[in-house]
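During the reporting period the student researcher (J.K.) took over the structure-prediction task from the postdoctoral fellow and processed the backlog of single-chain submissions. One of the processed entries is reproduced below for the supervisory committee.
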Amino acid sequence: MRFELEGAIIFSADLAPAAAELDGILKEMEGTVLMKGVPEGEEGPHVGSWKADGPELKLTIVSGRHVRAHEALLRLRKELSGRLGKAHRIGGRAVRIDRYTIEFQVSREPVAEVRVPFASGLEFQGTTARLVLTDVTEDFLSRNYVDRLIALVKEKVDAQRYEGKEEFWEAIWESPALEHTYDMDPTEEMARLGWIQQGPGKGRWFFRPQAAAVIRAMERIALEEVLHPLGFQEVISSSLVPFEVWLKTGHMKGVANEIYYLSEPATRSAEAWEELSDLVKITREVPREKLADLLEVPRAGMTYAQCPNIYWSFQKRTLADEDLPILVYDRTVNSFRYESGGRHGIERVDEFHRIEPVYIGTIDQLVELREGLIERYKHVFNDILELEWRMAWVSPFYLQQAGLAGGETEGADAGDDDRREGTIDYEAYLPYRGSREESEWLEFQNLSILGDRYTSAFTIKAQRGELVSGCSGIGLERWTSAFLAQKGLDPSNWPQGFKEYLPSLPKGFTFH
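J.K. obtained the following C-alpha cells:
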C-alpha cells in the first residue's frame, strides 16, 4: 500500500517566527513520533516537502501501510502544537487534506466499473487500485472513513466474482418422488374460487376465511409439532426497526433497496396539517408533495425479519448459563420486503406472515438443537403434510443481507463434512412449474447457525465461553403454497395428518 497526501496543518498564528525551527523538528519526528507502530525494518511516513504560508504549514506526506499518511498528519499536528505552543504560543487548530492518493492491491482485476462514495477518482491497473480523495475533512479522518473506503473497493471487486454465478448448493436429503394429480398454480385457483383477493396495494393479499384457515392450521402445526416440543417460548416484538439495529445486523448495507421505510409526522400540530386536510376534502386526493413536506426523513423501517429486534432485546446482556440455549420465537409481526418485479403468487410478496425462531447458545448446544429441528421438520413435512421435498446446504442468507459476497464461508464450503455453521434450505417440488428435474423448486423453509456475527454485534455474552446464534424463519405462505401446489384445494385430497389440524373449511362468501 502507498499513501500520498497533500494538505496542511492550520495554526492559530503566523508561522514565520517558528519557520527556522520547523525543518529540524519535522526531520526529528520522522525518526520518533511518526515511527511509533512501524515494525522494525519497515519504512515509516516521510514528509516529502513543506512550506510555511502564514498560519498554514503546507506539506506532503508519503507512507506505506504502517502509520498511514493521514495518521501521520494528525500526529504532526499534536506534536507541533505542543512544541510551538511552548516556544511561540502557536497552537494547531485543524488539518486539511487537499488531495489524497492511495494505491493498494485488490484480489483480481475488475471486469466492470467500480464506484464508491467520496472518491474523486478510482482507476485500476491490473490488480492495483488507485483511489483519489480531495478536500478531505478532519471528521472524515477521525471516523475512519479512509480504511472503510479501501475495504469497500476490495469488497466490490470481490463481489464481481459472484455476479452471474449460481448460489452454492449441495444436496443433503431428498424425499421419495410422489405421484401428483394436481398441477394448477394454487394462487390462481384460490383467487378464482374467492379464497383470496389481491391487495390492498401491490405485493399483498387479503385472505378470506378458507385461505386464512389453512394458514392458521400451518401456524398451529409449526408451533405444536416443531417449536413447543423443543422448548421455544413466545415473545412479541415491534413492527418497526430503527436504523441503529439494522446497522448492527448489516441489513442497511445489504438489502437497503428491499426495505419499506417509515416516516414520522414532522409535527402533530393541527394547524400545520390544516392545508393538507382541506385539499383532501376538496380534491378527494392526497397531495403527495405537500405530504412530503410534513414528514420527517425516515429513521426506521418496517420489519424485514423479526430477528434483528429480538437480538436488540438481548443487547449488552450477560445470559445465565442455566438459561442456555435461549429459544424464542415471534409470530405477531408481519414481514415487509419490496420485491418489485420479482413478485409471484402468495409465495413471493411484499408483505407476508412468518414465525421467526431465534436461538442463542454455545455452538455445541445449537448443533444439537439443529438436529432436533431437522427431525421435527421431517416429521411435519413427511407425516403431516406428506410433501415431496429436499434439503440442501446453500450460501448463507445473512451474507447477502449484510452485503457480502456469498458462497464461500467458514463451515459451509463444499466438501466440508463437519459443518458446525451454515444454512440449510428446504425446497418443495411444485408440479405446476413442470418436471421435477428441470423446474425451479420452492424454497419454503430454512435453518441457520450464524456463528457469532450477531452476538458480537449486539454484545450478547455468556457467563462462560462464547455464544453463537441462529434462526429458522417459518414462512406460512410458503408452507401453504408448497402444500396446496401438491395436494390441491379439495380438502378430500388432503392428508389425514393435516385434517387433524383443519377438519373442515369455513364456508366463506358468495358474491353476485
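The committee noted the following: DSSP finds 16 helices and 24 strands in the chain.
J.K. will present the remaining backlog at the next meeting.
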